[in-house]
Amino acid sequence: MDLGIAGRTALVCGASKGLGYGCAEALVREGVNVVIVARGAEALDAAAKQLVAVAGPSGPFVKHVAADITTEAGRAAVFALGHDFDIVVTNAGGPPPGDFRNWDREAWIKAVDANMLTPIELIKATVDGMAKRGFGRIVNITSSSVKSPIDILGLSNGARSGLTGFVAGVARTSVAAQGVTINNLLPGSFETDRLKGTMAGAAQKSGQDFDTVWEARKKNIPAKRFGNPAEFGAICAFLCSMQAGYMTGQNVLADGGAYPGTY
Ligand SMILES: NC(=O)c1ccc[n+]([C@@H]2O[C@H](COP(=O)([O-])OP(=O)(O)OC[C@H]3O[C@@H](n4cnc5c(N)ncnc54)[C@H](OP(=O)(O)O)[C@@H]3O)[C@@H](O)[C@H]2O)c1
Q1: Which Pfam families does UniProt cross-reference here (predicted)?
Q2: 47 CB near ligand 1 (under 6 Å)
Q3: Which of 47, 107, 205, 222 would bridge with 16, disulfide CB 3.0–4.6 Å?
Q4: Confidence (pLDDT) at 232
């Protein structure tokens, strides 16, 4: 299927690896110009080179900005490039696992800043321009924890629920009639560095070794495997497509069937 977005320009945050990279690569494969962001310059540079190879010599452009997207200065560095983004994928890594008894105000502010306020700032900075131009796609990478909370990820459960509530409202404002969709894409368990970190936390908490926890988690997923970033990216690219223009304000779960609810 031709997704009809070749020539569009996307901002993909948290994209030097993992799910953000998967989204960037899927968009590049559709002929979308991308600006990718992450803090670590070396990994970002390598990711950009990989994307340039995917794009090919006459393909879309790939730019990268080494910045912390959760800071005003980081976002300013991205917007200083002067692009009118047609597509924005928000993502900023997830908060650390732990016990809520140990989280102080600072830990909560950091999580809310990264996983709620940063996507809101990015939406604020881009949505009106998209609406004016009559096309826009915003995809927020959130988490299955929004639907099915994970005990050790309380910071994520809380902060992302705030974003989910905000998106439910803003997606249904006047921008919906101006070609702009805003959706959340909810990963279950995808094989990335982040998942390894979360599992290490779970192993430590339960006193089991890492491999035991890793395999047990797989067995609990109806698909009996973890997802991979490329399949996550393909769903993201579809949400950014022309064909997905009538889908907005949705929470799209990609979890191999792990969420047990009917709805
Ligand atoms: N993988 C899963 O199974 C899973 C499940 C549920 C939810 N999630 C959520 O999905 C998101 C992506 O996860 P992932 O598994 O792809 O993580 P990952 O493999 O750790 O990759 C995170 C990416 O985001 C970048 N990043 C982190 N903080 C950033 C910041 N402040 N500014 C700019 N870039 C930043 C990282 O690069 P730098 O560190 O160099 O900045 C890296 O490129 C996270 O929010 C995670 O919590 C993942």
Answers
A1: adh_short_C2
A2: no
A3: 47
A4: 98
